[in-house]
């Protein structure tokens, strides 16, 4: 909930609740909420929870809105409700979870291939995404299901229904959202499990950032030779998630961390419609195109930080705190030197 702080005599002495709305208030479709959540599920809303989206609802199909896998191969099922819903909405979500629990590995892989538009092996994609030493056995994929219902924070009927089934031992959680209109701007408030933990964007943080090797092996040299961190195409928005002062760790697929740099002051730059970048100053040796690339293995990165990262995206969540980033930068400099 958002509260306006009122003050008198120079002291904050009163909290005034701010009116909030939901998607239905603006005549928005449930599909718009789904797309918003799906686009932001990993890098924004679930900043510290590694999830691998594998499938989205198809029109006119009896399916939940979004399906994802966690590191253990368990299926996370998202059901979204844009406005007020009745108890039947939860019953519907439970049916989706029941159906999904009976999907074979082959069926789940088929859905994943349609989602990524590629002939990928799901266990291999999962292993790479979470940097596991060994791929999970197909029997470990979808051996447990968890249901997350996302809806308006004002929907008591939906909340009570979720609470009831949770008490019956069903793995189900309610994640509320609110929309605020402040001036002429609209703000989306969301509460992610386990307790809405997010880094403050103004705080210095460490970010493991992909060099785009899967799509363009020359991208790394575009960044190294021009002292910049860049993203391209549909992924270019990730540049908006890094701020001056942040420490960027360049993550090179199949190799490891190849360099670290601090983001310079200044605005985001767009040399063309496909690219966004920020200028950086390197704090470790800079790889050179004419030399073999030296890299700190991903496994060692996890050992130093004590964290498990989701390696399949441009930004490898979770973020690092300032102290964690400074420590990793020192270790990386020693390793590369």
Task: Write up this protein.
The protein is of the alpha+beta class. 28% of the residues lie in helices and 26% in strands. It is built from 8 helices and 14 strands. Strands 3-4-5-6-7-8 form a 6-stranded mixed beta sheet. Strands 9, 10, 11, 12, 13 and 14 form a 6-stranded mixed beta sheet that branches. Strands 1-2 form a two-stranded antiparallel ribbon. The longest helix has 16 residues. The radius of gyration is 22 Å and the shape is globular.
The gist of it:
The protein is of the alpha+beta class.
CATH-scheme architecture of the largest domain: 3-Layer(aba) Sandwich
Low-confidence stretches: none
Helix content estimate: 25-40%
Order of helices and strands: EEHEEEHHHEHEEEHEEEEEHH
What would CATH call the class of the largest domain? Answer: Alpha Beta
Strand order of the largest sheet: 3-4-5-6-7-8
- Morphology: globular
* Number of E strands: 14
Mean pLDDT over the residues: 87
Radius of gyration: 22 Å
Largest sheet: 6 strands, mixed
Amount of beta strand: 25-35%
Number of domains: 2
Query: What is the structural class?
Result: alpha+beta
How are the secondary structure elements laid out?
Layout: E1 3-8, E2 11-17, H1 30-45, E3 52-56, E4 66-69, E5 75-80, H2 87-101, H3 105-116, H4 122-130, E6 145-152, H5 156-167, E7 172-182, E8 185-190, E9 206-210, H6 219-226, E10 228-232, E11 247-252, E12 256-263, E13 269-272, E14 275-282, H7 298-305, H8 322-336
Parallel strand pairs: 5-6, 6-7, 9-11
Antiparallel strand pairs: 1-2, 3-4, 4-5, 7-8, 10-14, 11-12, 12-14, 13-14
């Amino acid at each position: 909930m958002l509260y306006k702080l009122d003050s008198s005599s120079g002291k904050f002495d009163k909290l005034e609740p701010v009116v909030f709305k939901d998607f239905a208030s603006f005549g928005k479709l449930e599909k718009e909420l789904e797309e918003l959540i799906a686009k932001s599920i990993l890098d924004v809303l679930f900043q510290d929870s590694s999830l691998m989206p594998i499938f989205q609802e198809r029109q006119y199909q009896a399916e939940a809105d979004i399906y994802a896998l966690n590191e253990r191969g368990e299926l996370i099922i998202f059901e979204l409700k844009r406005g007020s819903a009745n108890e039947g909405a939860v019953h519907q979500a439970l049916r989706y979870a029941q159906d999904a629990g009976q999907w074979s590995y082959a069926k789940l892989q088929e859905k994943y291939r349609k989602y990524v538009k590629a002939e990928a092996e799901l266990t291999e994609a999962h292993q790479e995404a979470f940097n596991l030493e060994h791929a999970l056995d197909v029997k470990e994929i979808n051996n447990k299901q968890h249901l997350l219902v996302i809806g308006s924070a004002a929907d008591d009927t939906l909340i009570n229904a979720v609470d009831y089934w949770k008490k019956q031992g069903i793995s189900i959680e309610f994640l509320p959202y609110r929309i605020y209109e402040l001036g002429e701007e609209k703000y989306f408030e969301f509460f992610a499990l386990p307790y809405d933990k997010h880094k403050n964007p103004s705080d210095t943080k460490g970010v493991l950032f992909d060099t785009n090797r899967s799509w363009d092996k020359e991208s790394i040299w575009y960044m190294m030779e021009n002292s910049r961190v860049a993203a391209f195409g549909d992924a270019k928005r990730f540049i908006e998630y890094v701020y001056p002062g942040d420490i960027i760790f360049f993550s090179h697929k199949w190799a490891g961390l190849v360099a670290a740099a601090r983001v310079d002051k200044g605005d985001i730059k767009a040399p063309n419609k496909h690219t966004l970048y920020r200028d950086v100053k390197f704090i470790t040796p800079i790889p050179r195109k004419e030399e073999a690339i030296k890299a700190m293995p991903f496994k060692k990165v996890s050992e130093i930080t004590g964290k498990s990262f989701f390696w399949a995206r441009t930004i490898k969540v979770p973020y690092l705190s300032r102290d964690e980033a400074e420590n990793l930068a020192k270790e990386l400099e020693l390793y590369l030197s």
